[in-house]
Specification:
2 helices, five-stranded antiparallel sheet, elongated, mainly beta, 381 residues
Length: 381
């Protein structure tokens, strides 16, 4: 009987030492529990474009380095940011291309659950790395919108509690999902139907530049209010070459095809809006009396005769069809398609893939500078 009692006492002591600590006063302290995060990218199942080139992230399994994560701890199973702005903790981690997009955090930057009050943990992930909006506000990030950078921000995601953790890898649970917060634009400049390419090029020359007018050039995420905003003075911005990386250079007008050619004339990722205004400049026309020909178009995207916006997370295709005479080219718009493979996205995270935006306003770079805001998600556990 004595041996059995001693064995039970030893086993109990070992169990206590593995799971909790007892201080000198007899109080029990539970060990830390790190928050593990598995992630997804809201995109189509296509081979991934290397994010280091800042091209569109077009796959569901891309490596992302330098992700900023904001963490809130709440005794409630939801957070009302409109009631009281909340100051979160921030962490830096990296996303792997395997193991279900698991996040590895930098040394000394691992978020943990609240074990004393068993609070709910909420997170938002932001990529790429950005600087604080102001030196005094470490909870706000600002990116420059240059057409090259695919800005990804997740909706608010709940990681559960100390006693009931959620990683996003469990069956039935949605991982933290990064969403595209800019709109993708591709422009194809072609000869109009039944026009001879040589005649069109003699009339117009080549494409010297394509500008997106009156567009916001900054985007800010404020973690104290969980909102994104497109701010600053609206200006014109030059589109890029089709690789979303190289500055635009004079490009030939392409021959007419019923579908877009394999390579776009120009492309980029820009702030969402209700409609867009493009300014196209051509040069080198042998039949023209001036050096440059300039045409400006206001483009409203339409889906089944219903106006739709230049929406975040979607790719928008514009075909500019040039005639062989000096008149306005025709515009043909391909119905905007999701950056994803399905028309409707349901990820259970709440919030909107797009943002509320205003009209472009004047076609001059004299925007009023007011910000466009959108709360990017609320979630209950």
């Amino acid at each position: 009987m004595m041996k059995k009692t001693i064995l039970i006492a030893i086993a109990t002591t070992l169990l206590c030492s593995c799971n909790k600590e007892v201080d000198e006063t007899g109080n029990i302290t539970l060990p830390e529990r790190p928050i593990s995060i598995y992630t997804a990218i809201q995109s189509e199942n296509t081979p991934t474009v290397s994010p280091q080139t800042r091209a569109p992230i077009t796959g569901t399994d891309a490596a992302l380095e330098g992700i900023t994560f904001y963490l809130w701890q709440s005794t409630n199973n939801t957070i009302d940011f409109s009631a009281t702005p909340s100051s979160p903790s921030s962490y830096t981690g990296n996303r792997t291309t395997n193991n279900n997009g698991k996040i590895s955090f930098n040394e000394g930057s691992q978020p943990v659950y609240d074990q004393k009050e068993n609070k709910h943990a909420f997170l938002v992930g932001c990529w790429p790395n950005a600087t604080p909006a102001t030196p005094a506000n470490d909870n706000s990030l600002t990116w420059t919108i240059n057409g090259k950078t695919d800005i990804l921000i997740s909706d608010l995601w709940c990681a559960g509690t100390y006693t009931t953790p959620i990683t996003g890898a469990e069956s039935g649970n949605t991982p933290l999902t990064f969403k595209h917060r800019l709109a993708q634009l591709e422009v194809f400049c072609k000869a109009a139907d039944e026009e001879t390419l040589a005649d069109v090029q003699a009339t117009w020359g080549n494409i010297k530049s394509i500008e997106l007018l009156d567009t916001y050039q900054q985007m800010t995420y404020d973690a104290t209010t969980n909102k994104i905003a497109y701010t600053g003075e609206k200006k014109a911005i030059l589109l890029l070459k089709a690789d979303y990386e190289t500055d635009f250079a004079p490009t030939d007008i392409q021959d007419h095809t019923a579908t877009p050619p394999a390579t776009a004339t120009a492309a980029g990722m820009y702030a969402p809006s209700n409609l867009i205004v493009l300014c196209i400049t051509t040069e080198g026309a042998t039949n023209a009396t001036t050096d440059d020909l300039i045409r400006t178009f206001a483009i409203q995207f339409v889906d089944n005769n219903t106006p739709v916006g230049f929406e975040a997370g979607k790719k928008h295709t514009v075909n500019i069809l040039f005639p062989s005479t000096i008149e306005y080219p025709q515009i043909k718009i391909t119905v905007d398609e999701n950056w994803t493979s399905s028309p409707e996205i349901s990820d259970g995270l709440g919030g909107s893939q797009g943002v509320d935006t205003g009209d472009p306003g004047d076609w001059t770079p004299n925007g009023d500078g007011s910000g466009i805001t959108d709360e990017i998600g609320k979630q209950k556990t």
